């Protein structure tokens, strides 16, 4: 097949083609004939050659709330295609070019696009999750009735033809096999780019990767090519190491479910004589990000900033010292009793002494285990005037049990937590309590049916892996 050939007979005219429509959250996609309008200014129409399915597509396929929960829509954002026609003011692209559509825009003009440290275009990312096009909400897709079909992440690749803004396009060599090129538009570029461009992993370094999904494995590949000496993979599923991970250069594996009472950061520091040089969190869980940070080497010298440690009663002396220029920082044990959350990792990773050490030790909350499911639960409570019913204890989700083999992602965490919230609410308020409806809506939109079926069975036989 000649990838560079274009179908110019439709230039400036609508094209009718097949597309997989998502008409309702969680329902099977429907293959239908749609109309794809010609590209407008700064847009190109692309014939999709190959597209792949990303977990993000699955997440938003199930989502029934928020700005991206609009139907019908065409999902898909990992793809490769050939330019069929171009709109006005399009420079740098022509008919027959092989291109990657990408959901992150790039205007090439703003400060962030010109910076080697950022890929978040400040010009076009303001409306990133509102799904707007450069000139408004009008869609380039129409169904058989002439009604608009929503775009998805500015790409919508589950169709034979799509229309994409040039800010979301990258031209590539036609020699790259299409099934491999499609992977470059999302997970591979994210992971390899993190290792190459962001971290700039060097030869002989040590690396930890939390989560061995597509992005995590791409990080491993990037670190391997850069010559990392030790690449530690962290995941609940050992098959991701034995069957897949080793092929991508992962040398060591840590299963949080088998680490006992040790935190994963402690395990990794013992494996690497003090911590890895680079740590990558590839799942998206806040507590996991903190643990990944704590797995790195400690090289911050904060002690040099602390020139005086005074009691709270000596607060005026601290003012005098600072005004006279005789101190960099004075610390009172009372002042640091409640440090900001984002500073806790720095405090824990430094050699502190005196009142500051006591304050940090006394107030620093213990980290969750590596794959703790974060407690974002808002309890259903009644005021004493409304009810004397006993309020349920706060839900704290500990380490996922060894038999919890679902993908440890944001979806899992929110899904599992909302499921528990719902059943605790029902137990406290009753099946018809309206305040339980929001929990039901959340977990039913986030949780695959096979997960729910399994948890229901476990609740009945007393083996449910969580607090109820």
TrEMBL record:
Family annotation (Gene3D superfamilies): Cytochrome c oxidase, subunit VIb, Medium-chain alcohol dehydrogenases, catalytic domain, NAD(P)-binding Rossmann-like Domain
CDD domains in the record: Cyt_c_Oxidase_VIb (cd00926)
Endoplasmic reticulum in keyword set: no
InterPro entries referenced in this protein's UniProt entry, alphabetically: ADH-like_C, ADH-like_N, ADH_Zn_CS, COX6B-like, CX6/COA6-like_sf, GroES-like_sf, NAD(P)-bd_dom_sf
Keywords: Disulfide bond, Metal-binding, Mitochondrion, NAD, Oxidoreductase, Zinc
Keyword Oxidoreductase: yes
First-listed, main subcellular location of the protein, grouped into a coarse class: mitochondrion
GO CC annotations, alphabetized: membrane; mitochondrion
Pfam families: ADH_N (PF08240), ADH_zinc_N (PF00107), COX6B (PF02297)
Cellular compartments annotated: Mitochondrion
Molecular function in Gene Ontology: oxidoreductase activity; zinc ion binding
Residue stretches making up the Alcohol dehydrogenase-like N-terminal domain: 42-173
Cofactors required: Zn(2+)
Domain Alcohol dehydrogenase-like C-terminal: 214-299
Family assignment from sequence similarity: Belongs to the zinc-containing alcohol dehydrogenase family. Class-IV subfamily.
Subunit structure: Homodimer.
Entry protein name: Enoyl reductase (ER) domain-containing protein
Native organism: Brassica campestris
Classification of source organism: Eukaryota, Viridiplantae, Streptophyta, Embryophyta, Tracheophyta
């Amino acid at each position: 097949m000649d990838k560079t050939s274009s179908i110019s007979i439709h230039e400036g005219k609508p094209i009718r083609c097949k597309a997989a429509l998502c008409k309702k959250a969680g329902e099977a996609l429907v293959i239908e004939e749609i109309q794809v309008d010609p590209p407008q200014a700064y847009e190109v129409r692309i014939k999709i050659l190959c597209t792949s399915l990303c977990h993000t597509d699955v997440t938003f396929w199930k989502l029934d709330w928020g700005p991206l929960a609009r139907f019908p829509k065409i999902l898909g954002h990992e793809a490769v295609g050939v330019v069929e026609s171009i709109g006005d003011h399009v420079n740098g692209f022509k008919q027959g070019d092989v291109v990657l559509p990408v959901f992150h825009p790039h205007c090439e003009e703003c400060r962030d696009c010109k910076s080697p440290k950022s890929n978040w275009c400040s010009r076009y990312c303001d409306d990133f999750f509102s799904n707007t096009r450069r000139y408004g909400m009008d869609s380039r897709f129409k169904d058989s009735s002439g009604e608009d079909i929503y775009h998805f992440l500015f790409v919508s690749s589950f169709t034979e033809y799509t229309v994409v803004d040039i800010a979301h396009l990258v031209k590539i060599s036609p020699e790259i096999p299409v099934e491999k090129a499609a992977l470059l538009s999302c997970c591979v570029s994210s992971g390899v780019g993190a290792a190459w461009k962001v971290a700039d992993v060097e030869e002989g370094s040590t690396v930890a990767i939390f989560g061995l999904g597509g992005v995590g494995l791409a990080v491993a590949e990037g670190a391997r090519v850069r010559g990392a000496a030790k690449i530690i993979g962290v995941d609940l599923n050992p098959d991701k190491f034995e069957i897949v991970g080793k092929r991508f250069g992962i040398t060591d594996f840590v299963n949080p479910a088998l680490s006992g009472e040790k935190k994963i950061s402690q395990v990794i520091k013992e494996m690497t004589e003090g911590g890895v040089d680079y740590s990558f969190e590839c799942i998206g869980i806040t507590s996991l990000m903190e643990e990944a940070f704590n797995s790195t080497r400690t090289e911050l010298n904060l002690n040099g900033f602390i020139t005086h440690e005074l009691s709270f009663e000596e607060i005026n002396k601290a003012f005098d010292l600072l005004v006279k220029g005789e101190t960099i920082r004075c610390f009172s044990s009372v002042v640091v009793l409640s440090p900001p959350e984002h500073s806790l990792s720095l405090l824990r990773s430094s050699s502190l002494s005196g009142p500051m050490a006591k304050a940090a030790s006394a107030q620093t909350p213990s980290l969750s285990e590596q794959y703790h499911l974060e407690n974002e639960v808002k309890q259903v409570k009644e005021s004493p005037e409304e009810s004397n019913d006993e309020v349920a204890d706060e839900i704290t989700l500990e380490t996922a049990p060894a038999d919890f083999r679902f993908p440890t992602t944001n979806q899992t965490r929110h899904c599992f937590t909302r499921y528990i919230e719902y059943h605790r609410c029902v137990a406290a308020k009753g099946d018809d309590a309206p305040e339980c409806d929001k929990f039901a809506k959340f977990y039913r939109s986030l949780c695959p049916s096979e997960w729910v079926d399994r948890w229901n069975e476990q609740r009945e036989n007393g083996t449910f892996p969580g607090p109820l």
